[in-house]
Specification:
The complex is a heterodimer of chains A (124) and B (107).
Chain A lengths: L2 E5 L3 E2 L5 E8 L10 E8 L6 E7 L3 E4 L7 E6 L4 E6 L8 E11 L2 E7 L3 E5 L2
Parallel strand pairs in A: 2-11
Antiparallel strand pairs in A: 1-3, 3-8, 4-5, 4-9, 5-6, 7-8, 9-10, 9-11
Chain B lengths: L3 E4 L2 E4 L5 E7 L7 E6 L6 E5 L3 E2 L7 E6 L2 E6 L8 E7 L6 E2 L3 E5 L1
Parallel strand pairs in B: 2-11
Antiparallel strand pairs in B: 1-3, 3-8, 4-5, 4-9, 5-6, 7-8, 9-10, 9-11
Chain lengths: 124, 107
């Protein structure tokens, strides 16, 4: 059974860099099968879900164009973790951050495993 | 980006009622749409994939239909445990996008 768990500071000051880690158990993130995409998604309080970006095939990345200039997603395969860095944060980046696994079978993609989510507040 | 417009944004219904939610895409996305349920304080859970296919273990009162730009999610007989927010999500293109959500409350 695949499990994901987010970790990182719950409070970040404006203009600083938000850093979160997702620890994965049950499947290696280094798998190059092309069937899994390691993803970050966020949700401001009371609002909808925003896709931030993903890691795949051991090192490929895709980012949301709206955040691309500030986002880096990377992997530490020795620890079976992947990480999110979001620079120059503002109050608008305050949200619950989820890591998730997107799975692909033929043409079908879906998010089949999620972390519990971690609240990150941006405040001085 | 592909925009997904969900309606209504919230609804109130009684136990046993039929509940219908629509999701309209800003462009043709074939059947590349999923539906998730999110309960307060929890991560979303997949209910329907590829517009109309049930995830394993999902009760048969949940269903999805549609293709192209208009999709429908239905709960045929609302149960107390169905109180949640429901989201549609497209996987036709990047970035992945979600509908704004429909909050289902009990009358």
């Amino acid at each position: 059974q695949v499990q994901l768990q987010e970790s990182g500071p719950g409070l970040v000051k404006p203009s600083q860099t938000l850093s979160l880690t997702c620890t994965v158990s049950g499947v290696p993130i280094s798998s190059d099968s092309g069937s899994y995409y390691w993803t970050w998604i966020r949700q401001p309080a009371g609002k909808g879900l925003e896709w931030i970006g993903r890691l795949y095939n051991g090192g490929g990345t895709n980012y949301n164009p709206s955040l691309k200039s500030r986002v880096t997603i990377s992997a530490d395969t020795s620890k079976n973790q992947f990480s999110l860095k979001l620079s120059s944060v503002t109050a608008a980046d305050t949200a619950v951050y989820y890591c998730a696994k997107e799975r692909r079978t033929e043409w079908i993609h879906w998010f089949d495993s999620w972390g519990q989510g971690t609240l990150v507040a941006v405040s001085s | 980006d592909i925009q997904l417009t969900q309606s209504p944004s919230s609804l109130s219904a009684s136990v046993g009622d039929r509940v219908t939610i629509t999701c309209q895409a800003s462009q043709d996305i074939n059947t590349f749409l999923n539906w998730y349920q999110q309960k307060p304080g929890k991560a979303p859970e997949l209910l329907i994939y590829d517009a109309s296919n049930f995830e394993t273990g999902v009760p048969s009162r949940f269903s999805g239909s549609g293709s192209g730009t208009l999709f429908t999610f239905t709960i045929t007989s609302l149960q107390p445990e169905d109180i949640a927010t429901y989201f549609c999500q497209q996987y036709d293109d990047l970035p992945r996008t979600f509908g704004g959500g429909t909050k289902v409350e009990m009358k």
